[in-house]
Amino acid sequence: MKIINNYPLSRVTTLEIGGPAKKFVSAKTEDELIGSIKFAKENGLEFLIIGGGSNLLVSDEGVDKLVIKNAISGIEMHTPGVSPKVLPGSHPGGGTMLKVKSGTLLQDLVDFTISNGLSGLQKLTGIPGTVGGAVYGAAGAYGQEIIDHLTHIVILSPVIEYGVNSAKNLITLSKDECGFGYRDSSFKKNGLIILEITFQLDKGNPEELKKEAEEILNKRLLKYPKGIKCPGSFFKNILADTLPEDILSSVREKIIYGKLSAGVLLEEVGAKGDSLDGIAIASYHANLFINKGGGKAKDFYALAKKYWEKVYQKFGIRLEPEVQLINLPPPQ
Length: 332
Hints:
Layout: E1 4-8, E2 20-27, H1 30-42, E3 47-50, E4 56-58, E5 63-70, E6 75-78, E7 96-101, H2 106-115, E8 118-119, H3 131-136, E9 140-141, E10 144-145, E11 150-156, E12 170-174, H4 187-190, E13 194-203, H5 206-223, E14 238-239, H6 245-251, E15 255-256, E16 259-260, H7 262-268, E17 275-276, E18 279-281, E19 289-291, H8 297-315, E20 324-326
Parallel strand pairs: 2-5, 3-5, 4-20
Antiparallel strand pairs: 1-2, 6-7, 7-13, 8-13, 9-10, 11-12, 11-13, 14-16, 15-16, 17-18, 18-19
């Protein structure tokens, strides 16, 4: 376990933006992760755990913390009748169980399920980041959600001594205990650390799953070309049933599948194609903010806030960032 001083977080974010972390470590095992947290506590440091860095906007000043990159990866497969332990809430005989370490790349998991003929995650192909990060943000695409087939999550206990190899540090939560909502979970609020996720998937035809994934990837590449420096959609779409009736009546024709697209609202106020120094909003999608090269967090944030304010002024809707803001305040 090597702890690095003043590590540029631009090296570990897909936006390639972010100032230095006071200290940084990449944890490849649970012992290293727990040891890193113990180091932070012993040295009076706050800590921040990140995954693949695909959904982060880090301030140019960086963070005065120990940043721990969760690089703990691995996938275990247990077929029906073979699994050593059936967890309460799962369905014996109802599918194949996968136990996935939270630092596993989401694409590696999707590829694993397709090659093993397991259906339920193939539409998530092309989404960057880790499985833990996707679960943290309840990621989804094209009608498929990461939590659809999730049954349990192993976390670090909130009241632990962070002693290495101590089983008492671990708690297993059922899906219903994780507070999942639209692009949301209780982990965003309680600070609990996701270590391992259990999925239960049904069998599918590998060739059909591969074809479906390829079709989805081709659609995704039109929106997110290879090499694009973008954290995905910056603002969350809005669930229609959360809107007050007076606002709902004015935007009803824009609602699709029960959601009001943030991109539609941003387009209505002229966001498409706007730019500020090295940051640009895509000409084809008003909710994609892109680092064109050498961009700064302050410009990214200023551009996003500009259109947050315009949407609020025109529609009375307060957009909520889907991207995590690190050492930056929420727009208001």
